[in-house]
Amino acid sequence: MDESxxxxxxxxxxxxxxxxxxxxLANMLDCPFYVLTVDPLPEDEMDIEKIHFIEKxxxxxxxxxxxxxxxxxxxxxxxxxxxxxxxxxxxxxxxxIGQTAQSRWKEITKxxxxxxxxxxxxxxxxxxxxxxxxxxxxxxxxxxVRAYLKEDHAGYRLCFNHTQSDVYEGIFYKEVGTDFNNxxxxxxxxxxxxxxxxxxxxxxxxxxxxxxxxxxxxx
Length: 219
Description:
Blueprint: E1 5-8, H1 15-29, E2 33-38, H2 48-63, E3 68-72, H3 79-89, E4 94-99, H4 111-120, E5 125-130, E6 145-152, E7 155-159, E8 166-174, E9 183-189, E10 192-198, E11 202-203, H5 206-209
Parallel strand pairs: 1-2, 1-4, 2-3, 4-5
Antiparallel strand pairs: 6-7, 6-8, 7-11, 8-9, 9-10
């Protein structure tokens, strides 16, 4: 039987790693692969954080030769049902999903989800990838918002209004319980997700923080 791979991603910092893993496996097996994400909201209600992830995933999927990037908007059905439908339509034989505590995919850690999924698609080999918890936002960070880094005499300053002098565009996750802009700024460089620490509106030692590739970029 010819192989075909489906990578399932959900909003968070680990989608890039799963897509790279799917691309590598597809290259090894010399077969097509697809990327799927599911959202219960309609497309016109997507917030800026989700739009950011989708844009970057599309770029990465294309870079790694994905046949199609599939988005299921306004989806009220159980995730397993949606995955099963896409898997059957595209003759999927290998399914890649991530095991992480900070997203809806945490259901994967419960046996019931795996059983339901395997009942939906018993013909598919299931790969559950343990992904890094580099940014566990639950309880520690507020919802991400679009932000920019602008270089000045003191370093790279965080700002929320786009100007011609912006150097980097990304998503800022503010620490819960702080009155100042302290947190994590995530952005893309050459299709690799990077993150730097923001302290009182500034990124200190920017070059040092970005000198080594992030773990997800190594996949």
